[in-house]
What we know:
Order of helices and strands: HHEEHHHHHHHHHHH
Mean pLDDT: 82
Number of domains: 1
Radius of gyration: 21 Å
Structural class: mainly alpha
Strand order of the largest sheet: 1-2
Low-confidence stretches: none
Largest sheet: 2 strands, antiparallel
Number of strands: 2
Shape: globular
Number of helices: 13
Amino acid sequence: MIRLLQIEFQKLWSSRFSKVLILVSLILPFSVLILSSIKIDFFGFFTLDLVKTGIFNFPLIWHIITFFAGYFKFFFAFVVVSMVANEYSNRTLKQNLIDGLSKKEFILSKFFFILSYTLLSTVLIGVSILIIGLIHSSHTDISVVFINSEFLFAYFIKLLGFFSLCFFMAVLIKRSAFAFGGILMLFIAELIFYGLLKWKWASETTADAIMAYAPFVSLYKLIDQPIQRIIMITQPNKVDLAYDYAVHPKELIIVLIWVGIFIGASYLLLKRRDL
């Protein structure tokens, strides 16, 4: 594993574009620290101070930050897709195979990098959450601080699932722009299929149950939107807004199965492809 990671890191670090992407993507998680200082002035009528809303209190902050930080994955995806596309454009894939690297080792080297990259990104978000929470939270007892920290694990699985999808698309299509186009087309296809399910073939409840197994929906369901939870905390009388926002093992397993499918499909595709 270490040898494969070293090979991958050397290739990425030799490319100025990849080097810049990686460095920026590792700095990006700390941009959430800016949230704690945001004050929005509404034309002088009133000022919205995010700290005073209580959204940075433990344990709510784990849910808030991991949900919105999840959108960073679209930038992180540039690193994963370009990593594979460069192998084809620079012909390093063919050279690696000539030098003795097997196709299985090639796939594993990419997966180990994705795994390490995902873990590091998750750790950086976790550190950012702890910094913001310890500075601004009114509850800093150790018994409270790590309640709901399972959202950080869900964030890790969410990134891993999305990066595995990006990796598969990059192996399938070879070109960065077209790979992103393929990802977008898959997202649109899910929306169309969901619409048809509700309109023609099933009730909304059944359609939701079926779509929970789809790639993009399963990724989204890992960390449900926190808006209703914020409202319930700030306005306790809004009991009608109660919903299940917890992280469920079933949802984690679904995404992990997709990770296996995407990585396995990438290997089979590369194994059968004439390079």
